[in-house]
C-alpha cells in the first residue's frame, strides 16, 4: 500500500530515540538500518546470550524483535505528541535463526487514528545469505500524551 | 482439564534443566516456582534492563516469558528423548507490568503427540498484589531426538 | 477476575438483540444459552451445511463462533449507545467438533474503555459429553455511536 | 519466496475438489479465481446472509475466508495421498468489507513436511476498486491418509 506522509517531519529521530532509549531494546542490542514512512529495518547482531541451546537466536528474542519492528514502523506515522504501545502480537517461528545477524523488517499494514496494524518479517543472515526465520502481525494502540 | 500422567518420571528436572540452561533464559533471569504435570509457574524478578521508559517490563519481555511458560508447561508431558519447540505464540498485553516481579503461569490446553497447545497468564506482583498483565496462546511442536 | 457491573442495565437484551439480528449470525443458526456480566454461552446446533467432509463442524465456523462468543461477552459491559467490533481473533483448533452441538463460552479477560480483550472456549457436545474443540483470544474495539 | 514444485501434478484439481466439496464452503458460496503453486485467489460474492448490520461481510465470514485461502494455498504443495487441516489462524479485521465481492489471496509463507505456514490478504471490491479489509496468518498441519 502507499503510505501516508508522516505527520511528524522528525519521525526518524522520534522513532530512533523512543525505541533505542528503552532499556529492554539496549538489552537486546539492536540498531536501525532504515527508518522510512511506515517501514523500518532493525539489525540484531548475533549475541551468544540471546540463544537457545544450539546457538540460534531464541524464539522469545525473535518475537521481541518482531514487536519492535512492527511497533517502530507504526511509530513513523504518529503525530508529534503521540506515542504507541503494543496491544498484541502473533509470531510464527519458521526456521532456525542461525548466522551473524537477524534483520527484522516492519511495515504498516493499516494505519489508523487509534489502532494501527503492522507486520514484521525476520530474516536470518548467514554468510551473507538471507532466509526468512519468522513472521508476525502486530497491533498497536496510539495514545496522545497528556498536555503539560 | 485433567492432565495426562507425564511420560517422563523426571519431567521436573528435565524441564528445569532444558529451560534454565538456555542463554536466552539466563539473560532474562527468571526461575521456576513450580513445575507440575501440564503446568508451570515462572518467576521473573524486576530488572531495570528489561523495562521500557516508564519502568515497567517491556512487552517483548512479557511475550518471551509467555512463550517460556507455555512451552515449559507443554514440556512436562514429553516422553524421554523428546524435545519441543515453539511454532507460534500470540500475546495480548493487558496492563502495565509494574512491581517487584512477574509470575508467568503456563498450562497445557491440549496435549498432542506432535503438536501441543498451551496458554499462559502473566501477573504483575506489586506490593504483594497480583494483577493480570498479559495472556497468551502458545503452540509447540514435539520432536523426537535422533537416536545416537 | 471479578467483572465490573454492566453499565447498561439492559445488557442482556442489548447483546441478544444486536447479535441475533445479524444476518451472518442467523446464517449459522446459533442462540444464547446464557448472557451474564462479562460472560456468554452460545449454543450452535449441528447443521450439515456447516461441516467439512467428515461431518464435523468446519474450522472457519468454529472461528466465527469464537469471535461471536468473545465479542458478545465484551458487549455485555458496553454502556448504552456504545457498540463494539472485532479488531482481531486468534483461534486454535484442538479437536474435531463432532456431536449434536457446540457450546461457545466467551468471557472478558480485560475490559477497557476503548479496547476489550476476551477469550472463548468451544466445547463439542457428543452424546451429552463435552470436550474442548477450540480456544481463542478476541480483541474488540468499543465505539460510541454518533449522537443523533 | 520461490515456491517448490507441487508434489502432486494434479494439485489444482485436488485443491478445488477438496475445498469446494465441503458443505461449509458451499454455505459461504465462494469459488476459486486462481490456483497456482503455493498461491490461490478465492472470490466470495456479496451475499446478504453473510453480513452484519450495516451490509458489510461479517468478521467471522472474513476469518473463514482467510482460513480457506491460507489452507488452500498450503494444499497446493501436498503430495498425493496427503491432506491438511488448520492448526490455527489469526485474522486482523482492517476495514469494512463493503462492495460486490471479496478476494481472499492466500500464499504459502513457509512450506514444511508436517507443518506449513500461510498468509492471506482479503480485499473488498467496491465498484471495481480493491481495498485491503483483512489480513491473516494460518498454520496448517499436513497428514498422510492411511493406506487402504
UniProtKB/TrEMBL annotation, chains A, B, C, D:
Identification of the protein by name: Medium/long-chain acyl-CoA thioesterase YigI
Keywords for this protein: Hydrolase
Gene Ontology MF terms: fatty acyl-CoA hydrolase activity
UniProt family annotation: Belongs to the YigI thioesterase family.
EC number(s) given by UniProt: 3.1.2.20
NCBIfam families xref list: unchar_dom_1
Source organism of the structure: Saccharomonospora amisosensis
Annotated signal sequence range: none
Taxonomic lineage from the root: Bacteria, Bacillati, Actinomycetota, Actinomycetes, Pseudonocardiales
